[in-house]
């Protein structure tokens, strides 16, 4: 679907470190929109496979699990599994999807954060049925609740290293009290875990969207503090340092130097006699999808133009929730000849936060135009909702295969009596 961009660094696997919105085949995106309607996710599984290969090349000896929450689509899960990754799951629903997509039970980690009883019941049932999965617990209460259910399988303790990193306050987890056992209680909880379970490892996650120098410095501090805790605990099969590796959302940003992250991980953890595990989500899927939307309203106002589009925060929540930047491209061969204007791209939801950008210089849009939003593959479809009773969009491959059909109005009421 796209040519590797010669400007981008490659890392020996032959694929560029980032796929830009400009690299997507514009004519093909227009055809797909005409055939499948908009809003439309277009997900390129080949790019997911390339990202997996690049990540593997940077961490050749690590145990790698994909953070399913970034994109739990069946086709994505199968692609990641075929690339040799395990699955890190945040809920019973994700564990179920991973098992259905063919991940072996022993390649599944369930990261239990305040786990609902129903989730624990389901996970313990799968374990009884033979899935040799690992449960990662972040509170002593969860150990009690697993014991009550007769679970004595593989268990990993999530620690709170007191250091976080990430693109937004809402996604920095490393120091948030919600996540993991506080450093001063780790010994006690690990002793408890060793007594009744097959205790295998320590886990920590700094946060999501680590990208700039400051993030990398915070991430290194995080790694050092995880290493310190792991050295104290000793006798570990693995130390899992989570996910968080970011991607460039702005076209002017360079891709993250994955080797720099790998070097930091090696330097900070090499003294430990334990395997290293990582669980990337965003890095593997973000640039593998775009969201295509059609302009239905063009409203000139004082200093700008408001382009009303048929996708909204229900289809791609990140701008509304984190003020996240997503590149926007007008899919028109004559785009370059159009006058540039400050454009606010706004969705159909009755919320002022339902905008994808405000006053961004873009070619002046016209009614009927198609716009593509880049880096929609991670936490895009996955965070979609049906708020305002808007059905969720379809998701297709560049070849036109339907990965997820569009939700219908009838689907919206299917659960109601
Ligand atoms: N492991 C754990 C325990 C996590 O909580 C997460 C993400 C990951 C791995 C994967 O992190 P990644 O490699 O994707 O950064 N919705 C937000 C991101 C929330 C991330 C939650 N945890 C966003 O759209 O930016």
Describe the protein in words.
By secondary structure, this protein is α/β, with parallel strands linked by helices. The protein has two domains: 242 residues, Alanine racemase (TIM Barrel); 130 residues, Lyase, Ornithine Decarboxylase, Chain A, domain 1. It contains twelve helices and 18 strands. The strands form two sheets. Strands 1, 11, 12, 13, 14, 15, 16, 17 and 18 form a nine-stranded mixed sheet that branches. Strands 2-3-4-5-6-8-9-10 form an eight-stranded parallel beta barrel, surrounded by five helices. Helix 8 packs parallel to helix 9. The termini are far apart. The N terminus is likely disordered. Ligand LLP binds next to helix 10 and helix 11.
Mean pLDDT: 95
Listed once per kind, the bound small molecules are: ligand LLP
Low-pLDDT runs = 1-7
Strand tally is 18
Oligomer: single chain
The CATH architecture of the largest domain can be named as: Alpha-Beta Barrel
Order of helices and strands: HEHEHEHEHEHEEHEHEHEHEEHEEEEEEH
């Amino acid at each position: 679907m796209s040519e590797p961009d010669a400007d981008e660094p490659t890392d020996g696997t032959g694929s560029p470190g980032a796929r830009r919105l400009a690299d997507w085949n514009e004519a093909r995106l227009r055809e797909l929109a005409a055939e499948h309607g908009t809003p439309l996710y277009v997900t390129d599984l080949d790019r997911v496979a390339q990202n997996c290969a690049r990540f593997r090349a940077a961490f050749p000896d690590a145990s790698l699990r994909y953070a399913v929450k970034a994109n739990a689509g069946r086709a994505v899960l199968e692609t990641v599994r075929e690339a040799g990754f395990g699955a890190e799951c945040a809920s019973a629903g994700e564990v179920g999807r991973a098992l259905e997509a063919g991940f072996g039970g022993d390649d599944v980690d369930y990261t239990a954060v305040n786990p609902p009883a129903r989730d624990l019941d389901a996970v313990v049932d799968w374990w009884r049925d033979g899935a040799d999965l690992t449960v990662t617990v972040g509170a002593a209460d969860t150990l009690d609740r697993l014991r009550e259910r007769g679970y004595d399988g593989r268990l990993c303790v999530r620690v709170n290293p007191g250091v976080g990193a990430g693109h937004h306050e809402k996604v920095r987890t490393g120091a948030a009290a919600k996540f993991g056992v506080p450093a001063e209680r780790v010994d006690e909880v690990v002793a408890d875990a060793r007594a009744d379970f097959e205790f295998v490892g320590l886990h920590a996650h700094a946060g999501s969207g680590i990208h700039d120098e400051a993030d990398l410095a915070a991430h290194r501090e995080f790694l050092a503090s995880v290493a310190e805790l792991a050295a104290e605990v000793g006798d570990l099969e693995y130390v899992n340092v989570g996910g968080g590796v970011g991607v460039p959302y702005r076209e002017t940003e360079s891709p993250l130097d994955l080797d720099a992250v790998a070097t930091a991980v090696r330097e900070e953890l090499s003294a430990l006699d334990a395997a290293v595990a990582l669980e990337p989500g965003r890095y593997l899927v973000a640039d593998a999808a775009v969201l295509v939307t059609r302009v239905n309203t063009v409203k000139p106002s004082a200093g700008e133009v408001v382009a009303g589009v048929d996708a909204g925060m229900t289809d791609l929540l990140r701008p509304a929730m984190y003020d996240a930047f997503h590149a926007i491209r007008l899919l028109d061969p004559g785009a370059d000849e159009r006058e540039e204007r400050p454009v606010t791209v706004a969705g159909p939801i009755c919320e002022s936060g339902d905008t994808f950008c405000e006053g961004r210089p873009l070619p002046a849009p016209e009614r009927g135009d198609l716009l593509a939003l880049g880096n929609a593959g991670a936490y895009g479809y996955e965070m979609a909702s049906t708020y305002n009773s808007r059905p969720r969009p379809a998701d297709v491959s560049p070849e036109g295969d339907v990965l997820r059909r569009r939700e219908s109005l009838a689907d919206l009421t299917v659960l109601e009596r």
